[in-house]
Predict the 3D structure of the following.
Amino acid sequence: MAPHVKVRQAFAATRALGIPDEEVKPILKQLLRVYNKKWELIEGENFRTLIDTYYESKEDKNIGDGNGSTAGQDGYERPSKRLHLEKQENQHSNSANQTSSSSSEEMASRKASASSPTLYSNSTVEAGLGQISEVLPGKIFKKELSRAKANSIATLPPLTESTRLGHSDQHSPLDSEAKSSADIIRNVSNSNGITGPNTKVLSDLRKDSEVSNSIASTSSSGPTNARRRHCSSRKGCFINLTDITKGAEKVKISLADDPRNEHLPAFNYIPHNIIYQSAHVQISLARIADEDCCSSCMGDCLSSELPCACARETGGEFAYTPVGQLKEEFLESCKSLKVNPQEKDFVYCQDCPIERSRNDSRPEKCKGHLIRKFIKECWRKCGCDMHCGNRVVQRGITCKLQVFLTEEGKGWGVRTLEELPKGTFVCEYVGEIVTNTELYDRNMQKKGRERHTYPVMLDADWGSEGHLQDEEALCLDATYHGNVARFINHRCFDANLIDIPVEVETPDRHYYHIAFFTARKVGAFEELNWDYGIDFDDKDHPVKAFKCCCKSSHCRDMKRRK
Ligand SMILES: C[S@@+](CC[C@H](N)C(=O)[O-])C[C@H]1O[C@@H](n2cnc3c(N)ncnc32)[C@H](O)[C@@H]1O
């Protein structure tokens, strides 16, 4: 539909609420700029985003004017979710010198919140946070918890409060139980002076605050909105709603505000994998042979007629297209490996670390590991530049993502705030690189209902590795240190993401990256999910599987229960 028709429709929707066109016009312009002229993000629910943003800006003006009313002139009341958000913001935007316009990020995040039916619900999260039993999917490391291994129990490095996303309550004088969340937020905003960059920041909040300040100061849409968006989701736990990555990614990843008062697990956001302690991952240029890189290339390898040496891994073709997406054929063949696993698509270990971990004295035969299609990206020894089309995963997240509380009892989840074409790189599964032994030790130290996220086994090349010791078998654990992928939920069979192993800085496949690509076109605000590969029939599994709420018609758990 022609844009002017849409503009007319937008005015019709706002006029119906008694809002004059001239007041809507600048808001609409701003939204179009923020959403890159994607009308579909604005026109939904009869221009709900536009209306919300209009009232929001009005309300901000009212706040500035000392009038805190939340109803529009026509009596239009915004939903409770919005009020909740505003309430929080008002609390910590106590300092008077606030400006009225919202940043693009805030608007996008608000739009996402507003468009989600989940956010208006009062329902509780059944299997949600704090109650979720840990699940280690089939392809994920399984360790017999009863196995005695009293010696060599590794001690986890304590997370320093300042590096955690959520802060526990020991350090900040503000975090005492006597103070309500609102008090805490108020105190933070007062003591931190929000608009005054040199004001002393309380030590517990220093990191978040710095990030917030930088976000506020770099925010470019309209007048600067220096309002900091923190929420206190539990006693002493501060979360930056604007960017859970705390500036670690090139893009901000917001946390949708939610009235259900659930708290995000405390973890440290890291944008790249990191070795915990003993994992044997050797990264050195000397290990990369000349034939394993494309040192004579220049510029963008994808634009050359012949595939470079790095493309050899993907059958002499690049896995990526010139626009940086995964090629259709490559994606389809990866999908078919998962969807129709044939005998030939598995590789079997002589002595499987997974089976050993389940029963060391009498390990069963290896159940097989999926042969995966790998991508090999160009890297430091290659002659091409950083903009080479064969460097996608290493450039990091570029999509607009948001963490939100799901409706269906899955706890937190991740959604995209924009439409993603099929084959788009979304994010990597980032965590600590741990050995089987270290992971086992972590499991042993786990207390009570403490949640542990989901170590992903790096087993795609075990077939060629011969006998692997526990100390050699590697996995990624995102429990304490991880990225946004630690919030991506499971969906049986027809998930919209697919995990693909990607070789970047090591010439072998002992250690590699797990990258998520869209398996189909994904609409804006759709939840992202991937198939963890859980075997819901595995009764011997040391960890009880969750009751799957993926709602897929192919849900393996549902079929089993039936
Ligand atoms: C990697 S975490 C995903 C993030 C998690 N939802 C959270 O709130 O932190 C995996 C956990 O999420 C929950 N989960 C993921 N997918 C689910 C599903 N399809 N049905 C029910 N729970 C799910 C389970 O509790 C699972 O143990």
In short: The mean pLDDT is 71. Residues 40-64 form the longest helix (25 residues).
